[in-house]
Known about the structure:
Elements: E1 4-7, H1 23-34, E2 38-42, H2 53-59, E3 63-66, E4 71-74, E5 77-81, H3 86-99, E6 102-107, E7 110-113, H4 116-126, E8 148-151, H5 154-163, E9 167-168, E10 177-182, H6 187-198, E11 205-209, H7 215-220, E12 223-226, H8 232-237, E13 240-241, H9 249-256
Amino acid sequence: MRKLICFDMDMTLYDHKTLTIPESALKAVGKLQADGHIVAVATGRDMDNEFSSHLAEIVKPDAIVHCNGQKVTVGGEVIREAFLEKELVERLLDFAEERGYSIGANLGPAGCFTHKERVIEREKRVFGIREREFLEPERLLEERLYALTFFGTPEEAAEVERAFPELKLPLFAAKEGADVIYRESSKALGIRALLEYYGLGWQDVVAFGDSMNDVEMLKEAGLGIAMGNAVPALKDAADFVTKRIDEDGVVYGLRYAGLLEEEI
Length: 264
């Protein structure tokens, strides 16, 4: 029976330590597709953005759930999209600027964040990015935005949530930042659009993730698999905990699911 296999990107497929996607995972994706299954990337990233599109080109998924469900694409077709209200974005930027928090988004190759120094420090440390263009955060008010990104501590993220109860900030696995999305948004919401498109049900879904923005999809999926490097709360929500990303965790999880034989 055909399955919809949904992979988170960062620290599920894409290893931040090596800045690569493990070859074993890429081979597994190709084998799944050759066997007639549907492979989707479900991520907090906008995979059409300049910083992410090369990863989509490497993985070659059949479908993508972008921005925690705010945009869903199948090939070049957009089948779902929803945007943040501009008035909310303006209030959020004012709040972040006053409190010293970094909130914003990438517009093409340029960063557009309040307190950009926090973004610059993290990019140098995690990704080795030394220099790139930054625009004034007010530039975001001219754009239609699916979501925003927050960089800071869990305590700071919680303060944003208290000030903006209509939003949630699910933390990245490293707990140095979070996605900024409507409380009702989730990867599961985006996957529902794919299920309608393909005529499948949740029992047909196998989902892999490592961070708190993966909770809803792992709970809804017929089989929810947490990476060995996942945050503890996601492991608690999963049906199965596989090995770490650097231990061929994707392949190990797919074998558990009965979707791969021993050798690929």
